[in-house]
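Tutorial, part two.
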Amino acid sequence: MESKNKIHHLRSKERKKLVRKLEKEKENLQIKLNQLEQEAEKLNQVMKKISAQEYTKWEEIAREKEN
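Running the prediction step on this input gives:
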């Protein structure tokens, strides 16, 4: 019976260690995800600016063709 308790205790200790490791990994992944979301937002803003510039450029070309 005593050896069963030791085995259970060791497994419990290993589980706790693994849980801490996985929680830390989850935290690091969440940080990376947040960084990627910020980068994606910046890229979206850049793409909106580029789209607006392209639209303006095509408007100018259309006006030139009308004249």
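The CA atoms of residues 21 and 39 lie 27 Å apart. In part three we will examine how such features are distributed along the chain.
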